[in-house]
Amino acid sequence: MSLSTRCLLCRLSSLSEAVIRSKSHFVKYIVAKANIRMSAVMTGYGNVKLINGNEIPSEAIMIDFRSDTVTKPNNEMRAAMMNADVGDDVYGEDPTVNELQKLGANLLGKEAALFVPSGTMSNLIALLTHCKLRGSEAIVGDESHILHYEQTGAAQFGGINLRSVKTFADGSLDLDEIKRKIRNSKDAHQSHSVLLCVENTHNRCGGRIVPQEWILKASQLAKENGMKFHLDGARIFNAAVALGVPVSEIAEPFDSVSVCLSKGLGAPVGSLLIGTKSFIEEAHRCRKALGGGMRQAGILAAAGILSLQKGPIRLAQDHMFTKQLAVTAQEVGKDIVEVDLDTVETNMVMLKVEPKSGATPNSIVRRLAESTEKEVHAVGQDVRLLAYPMTESNIRIVVHCNNTPEDIKLAQDKLGYVFGELKHNDA
């Protein structure tokens, strides 16, 4: 080999090593950048968490009252999930899912149940199963979750018209208006009213319990007109615990019931749709069509079983904590917010912002999620309270199973400080 050839090969070898080193450094750089970005996504920037648009320092005490959907599974649930016996639920072969469905049906006094990913899907499956013909009509409350928060999926996927009627403050609907709006004639111009839907407890009414006497009247009205009767019972266990009655007593008049496991009951995921065996068989087909068929879902169902067995026991304490917060808000928030203690029945309290205060639900919620140096110096710690601006005039606070007595005391102090500050600023 000539000298010039050897020199050329040496140069090429050196160049190759340089490229490899360069690539190695580049890869390390990219990985490092990715790790930094991942850290930023997970924690905000530095030691700050970004939650619902609020920057919460990691050392701050955060009390989350936005919803009971924010609950996290406890260690017992996590262990049950890890050790769950599983199979293919689409084939009906997951033993843990089957156990959950049987438990839910028995508790509500019905024949069968279906485990689904969410309450929205559960309600949608009920609507699609009851209202088999496109162009059918379901009557719902004008403040219902089905109407406000489920994208009118019944219309999107089933061609079902949602006809709304007035919702009273206690969550019941205007029976006279329902009578007027039921359409079951043979006139080809009109839809057929097939389904009547009720929500209990009622979200937008502040966790109110719909009176059982009214439910029985509504059930009779539905039967007289050949309609099915569906309950959005996302928080039905809250109602049962508050009334001191079996949950089956509330569920009895309904043809189908949707129950959420991932709110106050504390499971991480899932709802049950409950009804007759034939209804659930049809609902199973709808679930598959909507993409809700989960395979080894026993991992989730294991948490659901514990939520039904142990979750209701805790709800009475949630209700007590809610009442304590409501009393505090009424006392310290005078002239800023109005609280009707008679309407605080379960785990929600509505703070109605006084128009003359100059504050808004958004401004108050924003301030509760913040903390000033003066505040920290005065109270001795950095406390951030997360709430939900429900409407243009109302703030919703929801207590749940992850809240402790210490949380409630800190929240009471936080409300006292912030409302006192707002009054001082207004003076």
From TrEMBL:
Gene Ontology terms describing biological process: glycine biosynthetic process; L-threonine catabolic process
Entry keyword annotation includes Nuclease: no
Gene Ontology cellular-component annotations: cytosol
N6-(pyridoxal phosphate)lysine carried by residues: K263
Cofactor field: pyridoxal 5'-phosphate
Record's keyword terms, sorted: Lyase, Pyridoxal phosphate
InterPro entries found in the cross-reference section: ArAA_b-elim_lyase/Thr_aldolase (IPR001597), Low_specificity_L-TA-like (IPR023603), PyrdxlP-dep_Trfase (IPR015424), PyrdxlP-dep_Trfase_major (IPR015421), PyrdxlP-dep_Trfase_small (IPR015422)
Family: Belongs to the threonine aldolase family.
The protein's name: Aromatic amino acid beta-eliminating lyase/threonine aldolase domain-containing protein
